[in-house]
Amino acid sequence: MTRYNNKAPPSPAVLRGVSVVSVAASPSSFSLPHNLCLRRHCRSLEYDFSFLKPLYKVERERNHPKQGPSSDFQGLRFSFSTMAILGLIKRVTRITVNNSRVRVYPVRYFQRKDLSSTNLFNGEDAAKLPVLIVGAGPIFRELDGLAEEIERSQPPVDLWRKFIYCTSLSGSTLGTVDHMQPQDFEKVVSPASVAHFSQYKLTNLLLKRLEDLGFHVRGSKESDGLEADSVVARQILMGHECVGIDANKDSITATVSFLKGGKHMKRNIQCSLLVGADGAGSAVRKLTVIEMRGERDLQKLVSVHFMSRELGEYLISNRPGMLFFIFNTDGIGVLVAHDLLQGEFVLQMCKMLIFNLVGHELSDLDVADIKPWVMHAEVAEKFMCCENRVILAGDAAHRFPPAGGFGMNTGIQDAHNLAWKIAALVQGSANSSILKTYETERRPIALSNTSLSVQNFRAAMSVPSALGLDPTVANSGRAQLSESLLNESNPLGNQRLSRLKSIFEGGKSLQLQFPAEDLGFRYLEGAIVPDNESEAGDPEVPSGRRRDYVPCAEPGSRLPHMYVKILSDSTREVIVSTLDLVSTEKVEFLLIISPLQESYELAHATFKVAKEFMASVKVCVVWPSSDDGLERKSNSALAPWENYVDVMEVKKQNGEGTSWWSICKMSERGSILVRPDQHIAWRAKSGITLDPTLHMRDVFTIILGKQ
């Protein structure tokens, strides 16, 4: 047996949430009107065995000074932790609730000898679980209506689309960069658009959604802690911490600490898998002695979260923007304008320096929180340990400089990748070896995004360097930032301002959006079937510059987005994204085909093989937008099938647009098999020549790790 113990006493600064089976939105100090104090003195322990949709917790990271940033340059400050293993797992488990005790009996779980030779489900203890998740994180489109509510509630885009470089908020402007392009609003490559929304507001939205779904949120003061007789479904308990992990070949035992009557209490929870998604200062990572590799101590900073409607009104009228980079003799700082309408900001300086950076005193300054932090760019040496029973995800597995939002995006990608694999293992359709593909697929992406985030951070440093400052030395040469020197009439000042102009116009400063990396990343090996026509070689080396996303249908790529009309619903016109055709409620593969006889034969074979593997498949028949009367033909051809959908391509109003198969760079005889995480598992660009049943049996064998 391997034993990992946290011998230090529990500290509010490092508490993390412990999520059992699924993850819900993170509760916090509900009365706090700011985001830096969210989850300051509490973390959550929650039980949920019935929520059917993937869900991630939005969490305010309460970091130790050496654990990571407290403010995101994007304004949306998220500390990802995971994971909705989730609706998917709950769909394949049976639940019995009796006298406030919950017993979990996963369907076919005992068929997995290597991960199920245990007495976890003998009914003796409700705390014995198939999956224990420490921490949680954010998700949007999977919560019905949440993305739309964020779009409605966020500030107008003209108030946050720009980065402004200045001597003070009321002083001279050194340069302005607009990071929004027309295509960012057209939803051409994704059904979701960019948003700027404060985390505490998002947390409140998530909490409200959870309560609407029947969850009961208990604050740390009202909770009795993790007691055997008080464990009930659909509860979120605050103030619990994972302080120890014991591992053997059959199971994991987590020691959970909580307060009761002013005393620290402990209880053991046994599980088959433990997912550590508990942030940049991950207790799970430390308890299992997994090292981080990369660049440490890139910068040491202090963040101050404050409110001032006076300042908000001034900036709305004079220079609206999202980020303000301020350089003067009294201080250097970056101001993140979360919501100008409410006067909500994060600034990396303290009170008197705030006035110097603003350019005048503020009569209504309300400092909410001050916190030091250290910027790192690191990736865990491995994402799994203890015979693949302990798995890291999100910030626990990788931590980046905050510019660009790479932490949240990479973390959500981790969650999508891992959730369906664990659920497939629990339901019996996959072998335990499928878990290894999580690290195989995700760690290279984390390394690439680490490099990209460092490139972006160094681009941000090009501005102070152009001003004659040494970004690595605090307070160095600030006299060079005087207004008398930094103006066009001064030869040296004019030279430096010209250099700044060249940086801004050339797009060489800090970048906000990275669509190519956020949407265009591709898995080269893992739970996929590469084809001979895929492009060889490693992905393009990150440059730190914005590159547009180019849709791709190669195995390992994200399914391209295209709006389609559902023909099967005769009562009303329903238009969705191709991404929405992938189920979020269960482990289900999506086979996309054309209305051709050979494609129908492939679909029949796929249904047959999926049944052999105890897997679920839905068939999507894509009809060209130019065809008429095809719904009737499809209904006739597909009548024997229960799980299918007919869709038709949606052209733009001007009639322009590219067909689905052209976007995918495939012929109409092609077919695509999509994984539950919306990534392409297999494709045939122009049909298959082998026996379709034998071929698809080989495909599912590779994807589900049953070689």
TrEMBL record:
Top-rank lineage group of the source organism: Eukaryota
Q: Which gene encodes it?
A: F3I6.28
Which Gene Ontology MF annotations are present? FAD binding; oxidoreductase activity, acting on paired donors, with incorporation or reduction of molecular oxygen, NAD(P)H as one donor, and incorporation of one atom of oxygen
- Coiled-coil regions listed in the entry: none
Ranges where the FAD-binding domain occurs: 145-448
From which source organism is this entry? Arabidopsis thaliana
Supply the alphabetized keyword list: FAD, Flavoprotein
Under Pfam families, the record lists: FAD_binding_3 (PF01494), Rng_hyd_C (PF21274)
Q: PANTHER family from the xrefs?
A: FAD_NAD(P)-BINDING OXIDOREDUCTASE FAMILY PROTEIN, TRK SYSTEM POTASSIUM UPTAKE PROTEIN
What name appears for this protein in its UniProt entry?
F3I6.28 protein
